[in-house]
Structure formats: structure tokens, C-alpha cells
Amino acid sequence: MKAFRAKFKLKYLLIAAAAIILLGNSGFRRLVKNYMEYSRLKAEKTRLEAQHRELEAQRKDISSRPAIEQAARKELSMLRPEETEYRFPPPKDSDK
Fold first, then answer.
1. pLDDT tens per residue, range 50-77
2. Domain map of the chain by residue range?
3. Closest residue by Cα to residue 36 from 47, 24, 28
4. Which residue in 8, 76, 36, 59 sits closest to 44, CA to CA?
């Protein structure tokens, strides 16, 4: 019975010593903190890379000449110097 108690006490003593070494050591706490920050930064990097790919595709689409001309004609009502714009009123419901 005494041998069992000695093993039991030794077991808890070793667990307490390991906890004191791991938790009392500022290096271990710093390691855990750095790992958590690394995980956060890795997730942010993934998000930013996806946003970068999306913006790059958008930039390629906008930089093409027809896209710029179409946007200028539609949104700003711009015309070329030799063009004439004709505007017609929308059809009435009775004309349809």
C-alpha cells in the first residue's frame, strides 16, 4: 500500500513539476503566443492573396481598351468627335 502511495505522490509531483516548468517558463509562453500569431497571420495572408487575385483579374478586365470605351459611352455618355447620338423616347405601353 505504501508503494502505491509513493508512486501516486511521485506521479503528481512529476505532473506538477512539468506544469511549473512549462507554464512558469516565459519561453514556452512566448512560443505559444508566437504560434497563435503565426496562425492568425497565415489566415490573413490567405485572405489577402485571394483579394489580390480578384483585384488582378479586375485590373486586367478594366485595362482592356473595349472595356474602357464601353464604360465611357455608357456611364459618361461620351461620343467620338465624328459620331452623332440619336435618342428616342421609350415606347409607350400601348405601342407594345
1. 999 999 998 887 777 777 777 777 788 7
2. 18-79
3. 28
4. 36
